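Worked example 3 (structure in, sequence out).
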């Protein structure tokens, strides 16, 4: 609680507490209670309707009347409406809807009705196995975020998922998961950068699942699942022998896993685990073992005796290699590792394997690419590296990639130290994937040309004896292909959404026009001269464009200002870029949605289309313009920024000439600006100094409650200082460079939130604010001073008990009673 001591409304901060209980609100003694009202019956029906409507989005009139009556019984709770909608969506007839209304839902007030609604959703789950899967989710604590894939593997370990002739256990697990989502019994929280989905259970739903789990047991039924978050006392043998799932954080004193004779799922968490306990060897029924969050750095040979193991998770940097006996785990389906963990020899014996994300090609027998031949069930992502150790097409074909129809992502990487005699094109020709592939990446390929299947983006279907286009590809990446002179044909790929081109040193031009592309990333193409003329025209999909380190690129094609879906635009270090064409000249008006604009290190760029900023005045949040010394229309861009004030949070303009508006701006309102970094020195002259000063003052005038960081660079011999400092009460960091004033204004004391102050090259500055100003800077704890030869630091600053002062890189450490002042 000590971290909350500084919270006070007088400094513009506070604490919001949310609760479903009125007594909690009163105990907190708040200065204001805001009671949320429930949704209207109309809104509840809208939620229900969105879950049940199909086709044209309409519901038959008779069913709609019943549905509207049901909506009134949701009592304004969105969770209830979502859950009821999920149930009704599974009901095909009006009679079923009427039955739910009459037999399951009442007009009761209070919390009982939401419980009935949730129980209704559970009762309508179509299979006992699905109900078991739902109840199992309550074994995790309330609010616990769970990865979807991990949950499915735990269900599988419990035996809840039974395969059919057509579908395996994983398919059934994904189906069950989606059904629980559809019924709002689970809620997705996020998706990480690797595409892994996470979810939580609403607290009320968790209560239901817990009650179902407890109702399935009586006093004579043993506990099956335990989730222990902290170190605890010994688990009794009588309890241990019946457990099927155990999540154990921290070692439990005296635990002998040999007592856990029925255990199917075991998760160990904590750095206290340095090795896998020997007693785990006795868990002959173990299906799922997770040691990812431990410090275990090696595994015993006996791990190969856990013959029923289906899932092994060891995603830890600590684990360097796996023992050779792993090849005996013939039932292993999912092996989750980090790329540094070295696989054992003969991994190909694990023919049930579905998850193997990384494979390093070795030289010795048992480590070569042929180990992938029999792994026909691999799913998801596969990254193969050290392909320079593959000699030719014949050897490459032994990987049988073309038969792995369940792979969605394939990364093919050659080591940087590849032998110059490696037959790159031949090897790559033998690595044709299946046509179902969605993501394809080439890294370090040093062939001068690509084989036919890459050039055409089509693979040879052996059974049919014909070429099949890779129409399922949504993402392609080429990285460090240093010898390639051209990239493959891509125009015919109907679903391609993302393209990344990195370090293609010999590519001078790009010839494609991808109208559905959403993301284009071009980095370090040192010979790239131009982009396709039609790249941007009529492209309504492109939302992310990044062009960096293309030193001979001189212009961008027409239509950049017409990309109505563009959200992020980055152009950096294109030293020869002079023109960004703008044929529309603002004639075509549309509402842009640009959120971030970043242009850096393009020293020859003469003009940036102001229409791009002008069309996104209601959405732009970040603008960074750096090192654009030839830019001629900054004043016009600043005019556009004045109109963008309602959303702007970060603004950086440095190394750009003529920092000023082109005309009079009546009002700036940068009420959301958090960071401002500006440099007024480029092409400064006394003739425009007034206009520059007015522009800076205008920016600072109304962002006092939001601005956290300010960097301001002035110019020598201009004795100027913004007068708006006294408004900046939220400012925590201030960096001043070449501000040619003799003393800082007394209003400096108003910067009540200031913690860091930096003064660089302020050659006329003689003193810091007086004692009165210092006493008001209650948060200040760090000052850095450099190249300020006239500055004298008085004793009251030196005597400050918590203030750190660094002068020209050296920390000042003085005894205040002996030193009255210090000259910098």
């Amino acid at each position: 609680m000590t971290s909350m001591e500084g919270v006070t409304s007088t400094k513009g901060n506070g604490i919001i507490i949310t609760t479903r209980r009125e007594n909690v609100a009163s105990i907190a003694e708040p200065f204001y209670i805001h009671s949320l009202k429930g949704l209207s019956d109309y809104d509840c029906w809208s939620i229900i309707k969105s879950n049940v409507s199909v086709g044209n989005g309409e519901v038959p009139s008779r069913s709609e009347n019943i549905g509207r009556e049901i909506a009134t019984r949701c009592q304004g709770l969105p969770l209830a409406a979502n859950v009821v909608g999920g149930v009704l969506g599974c009901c095909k007839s009006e009679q079923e809807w009427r039955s739910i209304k009459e037999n399951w839902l009442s007009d009761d007030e209070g919390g009982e009705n939401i419980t009935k609604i949730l129980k209704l959703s559970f009762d309508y789950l179509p299979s006992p196995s699905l109900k078991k899967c739902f109840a199992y989710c309550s074994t995790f604590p309330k609010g616990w975020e769970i990865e979807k894939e991990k949950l499915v593997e735990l269900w599988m370990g419990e035996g809840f998922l039974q395969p059919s002739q057509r579908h395996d256990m994983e398919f059934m697990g994904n189906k069950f998961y989606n059904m629980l989502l559809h019924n709002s019994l689970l809620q997705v929280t996020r998706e990480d950068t690797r595409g892994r989905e996470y979810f939580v259970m609403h607290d009320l739903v968790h209560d239901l699942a817990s009650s179902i789990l407890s109702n399935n047991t009586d006093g004579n039924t043993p506990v099956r699942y335990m989730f222990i978050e902290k170190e605890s006392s010994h688990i009794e043998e009588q309890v241990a022998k019946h457990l099927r799932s155990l999540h154990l954080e921290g070692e439990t004193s005296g635990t002998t896993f040999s007592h856990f004779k029925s255990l199917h799922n075991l998760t160990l968490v904590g750095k206290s685990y340095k090795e896998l306990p020997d007693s785990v060897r006795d868990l002959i029924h173990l299906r799922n073992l997770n040691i990812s969050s431990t410090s275990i750095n090696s595994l015993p040979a006996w791990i190969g005796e856990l013959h029923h193991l289906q899932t092994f998770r060891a995603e830890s940097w600590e684990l360097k290699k796996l023992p050779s006996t792993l090849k005996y785990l013939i039932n292993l389906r999912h092996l989750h590792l980090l790329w540094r963990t070295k696989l054992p020899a003969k991994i190909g014996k694990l023919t049930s394997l579905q998850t193997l994300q990384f494979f390093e090609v070795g030289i010795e027998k048992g480590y070569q690419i042929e180990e992938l031949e029999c792994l026909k069930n691999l799913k998801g992502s596969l990254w193969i590296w050290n392909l320079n150790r593959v000699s030719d097409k014949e050897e490459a074909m032994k990987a049988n990639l073309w038969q792995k129809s369940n792979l969605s992502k394939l990364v093919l990487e050659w080591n940087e130290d590849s032998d110059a005699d490696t037959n790159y094109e031949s090897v790559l020709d033998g690595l044709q994937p299946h046509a179902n592939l969605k993501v394809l990446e080439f890294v370090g390929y040093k062939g001068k040309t690509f084989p036919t299947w890459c050039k055409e983006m089509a693979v040879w279907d052996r059974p049919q004896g014909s070429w099949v286009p890779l129409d399922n590809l949504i993402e392609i990446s080429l990285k460090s292909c240093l010898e390639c002179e051209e990239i493959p044909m891509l125009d015919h790929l109907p679903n391609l959404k993302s393209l990344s081109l990195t370090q293609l040193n010999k590519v001078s031009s790009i010839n494609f026009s991808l109208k559905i592309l959403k993301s284009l990333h071009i980095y370090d193409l040192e010979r790239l001269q131009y982009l396709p003329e039609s790249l941007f025209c009529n492209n309504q999909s492109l939302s992310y464009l990044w062009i960096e380190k293309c030193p001979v690129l001189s212009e961008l094609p027409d239509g950049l200002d017409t990309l109505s879906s563009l959200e992020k635009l980055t152009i950096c270090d294109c030293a020869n870029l002079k023109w960004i064409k703008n044929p529309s000249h603002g004639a075509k008006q549309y509402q842009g949605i640009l959120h971030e604009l970043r242009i850096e290190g393009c020293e020859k760029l003469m003009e940036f289309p102001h229409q791009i900023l002008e069309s996104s005045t209601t959405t732009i949040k970040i603008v960074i313009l750096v090192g654009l010394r030839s830019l001629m229309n900054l004043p016009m861009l600043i005019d556009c920024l004045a109109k963008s004030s309602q959303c702007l949070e970060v603004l950086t303009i440095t190394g750009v000439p003529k920092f000023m508006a082109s005309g009079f701006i009546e009002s700036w309102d940068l009420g959301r600006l958090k960071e401002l970094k500006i440099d007024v020195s480029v092409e400064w002259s006394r003739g425009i100094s007034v206009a520059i000063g007015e522009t800076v003052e205008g920016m600072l005038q109304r962002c006092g409650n939001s601005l956290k960081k300010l960097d301001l660079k002035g110019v020598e011999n201009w004795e100027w200082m913004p007068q708006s400092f006294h408004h900046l009460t939220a400012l925590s960091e201030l960096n001043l460079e070449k501000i040619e004033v003799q003393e800082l204004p007394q209003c400096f004391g108003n910067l009540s939130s200031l913690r860091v102050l930096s003064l660089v090259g302020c050659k006329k500055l003689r003193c810091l604010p007086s004692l009165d100003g210092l006493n008001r800077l209650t948060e200040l704890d760090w000052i850095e001073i450099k190249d300020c030869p006239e500055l004298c630091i008085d004793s009251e600053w030196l005597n400050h008990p918590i203030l750190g002062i660094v002068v020209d890189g050296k920390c000042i450490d003085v005894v205040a009673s002996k030193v009255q002042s210090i000259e910098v």
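Notes: The radius of gyration is 33 Å. DSSP finds 19 helices and 35 strands in the chain.
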